[in-house]
Amino acid sequence: MLQVYIDCCCFFLFGAVLLYVPSVAGLADNTDFIRVTRPLGMIPDKNLRFFYFQRKFEYIRSFDNLGHFLKFVLYPGVNESSFKSTQFVFVKAAQVISGVISYLKTNRISHFDITALSSMFLALHSISVTWLFKNLRTGKKACDFFLLLIIVTVFFCMGYLLYYNSLFGESVILWSFLLWFSALVHLLKSGKRSYSALTLYFMSAIVFTGAKVANIPLGFLIGIFSIYFFFNTETAGKKVLVILGVSAVFAASVYFYTAIPSWMKKPNNYHSIFFGILKNSENPEEDLEKLGIDAKYAVLADTNVYVDLKGFDVFSPEFEKEVHDKAGPVEVTLYYLKNPGRMMEKLNISAEASLFIRPPYLGNYQVEDNAEILKFAGRNLVWEWLRKQFTGHAFAVITLVFVLYTSVIVHEFLLHMKTKCTSYSLFLPAKILLMVFALSQWIFPVIGNGEADLVKHMFLFNLLLDTMIIVLAADIVKLTAGNPANRRFIFPLLGLLVISAGLLAADSKICSNGITTFGKYNGKAIEWEILDESGSHYFLQQRILSITGPFHQKATAGRYRIYGPGSTMTPKTVFCLSFQKMKRKGLKR
To answer: How confident is the model at residue 535 (pLDDT cuts 50, 70, 90)?
Structure first.
């Protein structure tokens, strides 16, 4: 037990160094923070959006009395946005911690320091990772050290940790999923259904379900799966706890689904149709007919709710009746099932978007720490760098991971049937559930919100896929350690994956893309490599160390849009730009 505490403390200290040394790093606001700040009485700095990480958030009023402040945290008394999330509980707890510290120092509370929130989340993250490592370790020092290196490389990548210094719901998703999955692994592998482990399992499941709207379908799946524990517990008290836990998970799923506000539900549904199904559609009128929607709305193809909608109002009764009532998540899902070609197209787009862990268009530093806008933290980025090497081949690599993962599961099941050894089968339900989760999240973001902000919406898929890779690594270590028969099966599969991934990574660096010029930097014309082009847009990549204000302001105005750091040339920052074609002159090979 002492070793577990030591491991947890080491994980926490390592994460703290990455987040806070030499300066605090986090994620800038992309305008979503208002969902949290407004109902909790805080004010985000609009001038910092996208460009800089904001550490301190001013309150709508200051406090000289600690009791008044605590009452304010519990009941802010401001107009709420009707947005519901389990995130609020933890932000409020962090507000209390930050406020008490500020009051003890200055006898005054005027702002919320987000490091109080990130410290709390980092502690929960460290506990979860420690518990997972404890349940995956083999007992052989060399094997366990190898597994530890992989876990640290993946789960302590800055792409993940930076979310803790933000008000994005992904910060809660990260640690709550890891805690839930660690509890699940413990319950299955140990065979012990302790009250504490079951309680943590259900509590973390509820927190995870309510962290973001996209998690709600997984909450229902967790509830269904958890019935399994009712038939695998011996005492009546534990059976009652399981019944209560399952009921609570279902109730939370229903509550958070019914609580989705209209201002969020309608734009999401709009994006799923017009910025999803109709995006890059060859025949938008025909696609609308398949959804039962009037073809007159085809003029909105490829648009999002934040641009000119040609006189249409997403929130009007007419639009509600003729669009939202005709096609919702169910109809969108059925459309993709009936049109597998389009679904494969979206899966490929989602796969490419998943190569990024952190949003590539949000700065990581405070303005006082670094004057450059969109400056990215470069600490412990090995895993993120590896992911980006497969630009253009993400679909193939992800498919290879699923194939290898499934093959190992089948192999373990056959070993269980052959040897009747339960060590091969205890963990199988969790592995299968994890894979189902990952498969669903590969397409759910597009079904629920189209391609709008897809890089960020693929966060949960990234987390699930990376957890699969961790589990896969643990299985390979376990199966091959001292067992020649298993090696004959595992090594060829692993070799196929490594060789295929290597060839794909090498291929992504060999290109004959065109070059065009756009903008200037330090008085010199900037050359952009054309990664892809459609009938109206280029998708470009430029390798420079930084972009200063004037150029970025031009690039983000009107028809120009920065997509963020690219996927290859490191340690230099790579920016990608998508802009509407104006002229083809200057294009060269």
So the answer is: low
Q: What's the chain's Rg over C-alpha atoms?
A: 25
Which phi and psi angles does 478 have, rounded to 5°? Answer: -70, -45
Collapsing DSSP states into helix, strand and coil, what is residue 572? coil
162-203 confidence digits (pLDDT tens): 999 999 999 999 999 999 999 999 999 887 889 999 999 999
Task: Answer yes or no: do 412 and 505 share one domain.
Answer: yes
Alpha helices in 28-86 (DSSP H): 34-37, 66-74
Residue 329 lies in a domain: no
pTM of the model: 0.84
Q: Rounded to an integer, what distance in angstroms lies between the CA atom of residue 521 and that of residue 152?
A: 38
The three-class DSSP label of residue 157 is coil
CA distance 95 to 72: 10
Is the residue at 26 inside a domain? Answer: yes
**Rounded to whole angstroms, how far apart are CA atoms 489 and 1?**
36
> Is residue 403 situated within a structural domain?
yes
Token pair for residue 533? Answer: 């082009």
Tokens of 111: 């702002």
Can you spell out the DSSP letters for 251-279? Answer: HHHHHHHHT--HHHHHHHHHHHIIIIIST
For residues 353 and 455, what is the distance between their CA atoms, to the nearest angstrom?
5
- Rounded Cα gap, residues 516 and 507, in angstroms: 22
